[in-house]
């Protein structure tokens, strides 16, 4: 099998002290033909650019690449305002926005900004309602009503902008079920990859919830964040003792990511180059991604050639 529509992206760090590098990487990704860039959303950190402010500037400075907050902190961002924000970004960028939504975390830090911490159950409910409200307030149609625990809508007008793809970073069984019922994509937590036990045990819960909701599980993409070094030479062990991918040569990356797509059905892969040199980012964009794209779209050399058409 092959999957021809796999998203390849780069995770960007929105540090205030390094804003020129942020924009340089984003425009380089756009020029190299990558599909998306992601921005972490941590409003509790004063030394970072706001994720949605960064996405607005990045989308304005690029032509083709999409942007996603990985993941939107819904502990501090209200669902109706989020819906309006992404509708505006969608309209301004020719619909190059993806919505990443998490249940919320770092409550002690958010409490310093006046946010009331939520219990795990409340966080899952808020994630459910956030996705529901975002869908209700995008895509056009008549005014909508909604009554939830955290949000209420009264004859609220949806934006005519289509609802962008919605990805979640769900972890526990209840939040995984929300993903199966409502989301378009799932980003496994803790940068767990396609060979991890976390993915092996979590993805079936998403699929089961999707089927129960009358959805096709294949409509929910699995999108991976992956880090690691990109070395000049092959390494003996590209995975650590716990089985976590830690990187290797470009050829080792290409082989591993090709397997991730063809054997494990990865639908998106974002490289997080934390602590890596500029050369790693360049090789990701110009060596690894193009070769993986080629490998997943070209027929395998082991496939039998088609028989000649019989003569009439």
Distance separating the two termini: 32 Å
What is the CATH class name of the domain at 1-65 and 227-303?
Alpha Beta
Count of alpha and pi helical runs: 9
Largest sheet report: 8 strands, parallel, barrel
Order of helices and strands: EHEHEEHEHHEEEHEHEEEHEH
* CATH fold-level topology of the domain at 1-65 and 227-303: Alpha/beta knot
How are the strands of the biggest sheet laid out side by side? 1-2-3-5-8-9-10-13
Structural class: alpha/beta
CATH architecture of the domain at 1-65 and 227-303: 3-Layer(aba) Sandwich
Overall pLDDT, averaged? Answer: 92
- Gyration radius, rounded: 20 Å
Percent range for β-strand residues:
15-25%
Indicate the low-confidence ranges by residue numbers.
Answer: 302-312
The coarse overall form would be: globular
Helical residue percent?
25-40%
DSSP E strands, number: 13
